[in-house]
Amino acid sequence: MATNQEQQQNQAGRHQEVGHKSLLQSDALYQYILETSVYPREPEAMKELRELTAKHPWNIMTTSADEGQFLNMLLKLINAKNTMEIGVYTGYSLLATALALPDDGKILAMDINRENYELGLPVIQKAGVAHKIDFKEGPALPVLDLMLEDGKNHGSFDFIFVDADKDNYLNYHKRLIELVKVGGLIGYDNTLWNGSVVAPPDAPLRKYVRYYRDFVLELNKALAADPRIEICQLPVGDGITLCRRIN
Amino acid sequence: MASNQEEQQNQAGRHQEVGHKSLLQSDALYQYILETSVYPREPEAMKELREVTAKHPWNIMTTSADEGQFLNMLLKLINAKNTMEIGVYTGYSLLATALALPRDGKILAMDINRDNYELGLPVIQKAGVAHKIDFREGPALPVLDQMIEEGKYHGSFDFIFVDADKDNYLNYHKRLIELVKVGGVIGYDNTLWNGSVVAPPDAPLRKYVRYYRDFVLELNQALAADPRIEICQLPVGDGITICRRIS
């Protein structure tokens, strides 16, 4: 069990990682992308939310700025209007989404922790897009199961983003594949899991990384084999797998 | 000037790079993505074209399989129908595009070298999509200027992919921004230029890499500053910058 001092050092180390965590060949290359193409274009509200989140102890969970930019563009490219997000934290990807949707766009956002969402909510409200968000506190599976009972929810979502508990991704997938429309998109976050998907068996890994790694490996295999979707696994952020429903 | 033996060694080295050239933290991670998410999904025709190209002396120029998969998905997501490609080589990204477009989709494809295109053409024909392609041999700028003059081509393209001479990208951009439709996408390939965008001044770089690096750096700054587009610089392949025209 880590001592108090160890825990503080861990947290300090993790704080330093935010903004410097990527799957790229060097942090220099990652900073180049951020400084050249991301930060100069980052909307004020997103910058503010990013800075707010940087002070939070769990900030390693946040969506990175390059990933936020990518999601925002993707949503505009597919003209998304009705979306869902599982896993909100302080709302960085939620804000990226809300800024991309039209004024009458809707986002069903779920997280087991309302406090973190409320930390970022004032920024989202100031940006004028909070009205698009329907936040539900609690686990997502019961909500999804309830939605599936009503046939009119089937195929009703343009885009669904999953950035939550990795040991449940396949359970989510079983439901989301019915809820997303044909031609619509599901995005699964963290599918390259800090690069640990290829770590040798004796590599030193953080406990939670090692614990969830098997679930991530299993997920990746399952998505690649699922004939109802076409996939694309992008090395953005911690790895996002885009799944386009084809039937 | 490299001796004959040095040249052969250079070529052998470059041949080995194909399929192993990425911007990621390790080749192991890149191979994981390819083996798990790309190769199992790669259409037969694209596999065949990739293998034909692997035998060609300039094969380092080819679009990688992960990039081909990404382009194919992107085109389907944006419902592209009328596209352009500048820089074809043996046609891997051209085939990825042709497979994504509907039956009546059209691609204007330009390259200074028809021989390489004709190397891949039989595979594209066998895939049943060659009828979508209008190939023009020669430099692209005169063709673009002609189209700009004619007026009716303004805003007529859904998607334009540029994978050609880096010292002309900004010259292409000046024209393409008029030819792509508002809401349409221009993709510029190789914008991270083998990671050399952050190489220190004394780093050993291949001559052509060093020569074109300044053009790439300049391009990246210009795209980031262009108010007519929104951008997203993805570390797929050698770096693709996706530009969505907004005005």
Automatic annotation (TrEMBL), chain A:
Lineage: Eukaryota, Viridiplantae, Streptophyta, Embryophyta, Tracheophyta
UniProt-listed Pfam families: Methyltransf_3
Record keywords, A-Z: Metal-binding, Methyltransferase, S-adenosyl-L-methionine, Transferase
Protein name as annotated: Caffeoyl-CoA O-methyltransferase
UniProt-listed GO biological process terms: methylation
Source organism of the structure: Tetracentron sinense (Spur-leaf)
Gene3D superfamilies: Vaccinia Virus protein VP39
Superkingdom field: Eukaryota
Record family assignment: Belongs to the class I-like SAM-binding methyltransferase superfamily. Cation-dependent O-methyltransferase family.
MF (Gene Ontology): metal ion binding; O-methyltransferase activity; S-adenosylmethionine-dependent methyltransferase activity
Alphabetized SUPFAM superfamilies for the sequence: S-adenosyl-L-methionine-dependent methyltransferases
TrEMBL record, chain B:
Entry keywords, A to Z: Metal-binding, Methyltransferase, S-adenosyl-L-methionine, Transferase
Molecular function GO terms recorded: metal ion binding; O-methyltransferase activity; S-adenosylmethionine-dependent methyltransferase activity
Organism in which the protein naturally occurs: Tetracentron sinense (Spur-leaf)
InterPro entries assigned to the protein according to its UniProt record, in alphabetical order: Cation-dep_OMT (IPR050362), SAM-dependent_MTases_sf (IPR029063), SAM_O-MeTrfase (IPR002935)
Transmembrane feature ranges: none
Family to which the UniProt record says this protein belongs: Belongs to the class I-like SAM-binding methyltransferase superfamily. Cation-dependent O-methyltransferase family.
One GO BP annotation of this record: methylation
Keyword Phosphoprotein carried by entry: no
Protein name: Caffeoyl-CoA O-methyltransferase
Domain of life: Eukaryota
